[in-house]
Write a structure and sequence with these properties.
Blueprint (H helix, E strand, L loop, with lengths): L8 H9 L3 H14 L6 H14 L5 H10 L4 H8 L1 H12 L4 H12 L1 E9 L2 H12 L5 H8 L10 E6 L5 H9 L5 E7 L2 E11 L5 H33 L1
């Protein structure tokens, strides 16, 4: 990668010391790989014009002043404007054909769930509150707001919608097997007792949005792998020298 040839041993070590080497290499790898992605002239022109409007640069003078202030050339500005569309096309050309298999591997983490949660350290208090909710003596959201010891007390116990993969593995397993709308008895997990109620569960599907998301994940996985290899090689050469 030619862009990093200017890095000296001292600068490489300094970047590594400050945990900046990998982010730099990853950014340069991405820039280099998308730089040759061809965009139709009409799409290119519309994308640049839209980007200029989004930036609030309504005339040639304001654009020139912005470029000067940010130390960018017009060509660099246009590349910045085309960055997202080039990444999308690069993903389509290089990773789109792998999205289905990647989706099947990731599907269990991508299903979207909304659930209510009450978190307590006291087991007996958790049992008492569960019984009150179960017997309809109290509302789940009111109990969560008043008694829960986690951040969910600020959202009346509601968590989500979010990918189920973000939940603790044990909690995710219980969510998957829970009947929607049914309050689950207290579950012991990492020093707390959790009262849980699944509100909704939507299985992920491989639509156009998901295909784009999967291809972006594959791109990032590839960039991380390439970055790690490149970083290791650079540091090995520096240490040998």
């Amino acid at each position: 990668m030619e862009s990093i040839n200017c890095l000296t041993a001292e600068s490489i070590n300094l970047l590594q010391k400050n945990k900046l080497l990998s982010p730099l290499l990853k950014a340069e790898l991405l820039r280099e790989n998308i730089s040759n992605v061809e965009i139709d002239d009409d799409i290119k022109s519309k994308t640049i014009d839209s980007f200029i409007k989004q930036m609030g640069l309504n005339d040639k003078k304001s654009l020139e002043e912005w470029l000067k202030k940010n130390h960018l050339t017009k060509n660099e500005f246009e590349n910045l404007a085309l960055n997202k569309i080039r990444i999308k096309k690069f993903c389509e050309e290089n990773f789109y054909h792998k999205t289905e298999s990647h989706f099947l591997q990731r599907k269990n983490d991508l299903d979207i769930v909304v659930y209510s949660l009450i978190r307590l350290r006291d087991r007996f208090k958790a049992i008492e509150l569960y019984m009150r909710i179960e017997e309809k003596e109290a509302d789940f959201s009111d109990i969560a707001t008043k008694f829960s010891e986690g951040l969910e007390r600020k959202t009346r116990g509601i968590i989500g919608p979010s990918p189920i993969g973000k939940a603790h593995p044990k909690l995710a397993e219980i969510i998957r097997t829970s009947e929607i709308g049914k309050v689950q008895p207290p579950i012991a997990l990492e020093g707390f007792y959790l009262i849980l109620r699944v509100e909704s569960f939507d299985e992920a599907c491989l639509d156009d949005f998901m295909k784009e998301k999967m291809s972006e994940e594959l791109l990032n996985n590839w960039l991380d792998s390439q970055t790690n290899e490149l970083s290791s090689n650079l540091l090995s050469k520096v240490n040998e020298g």
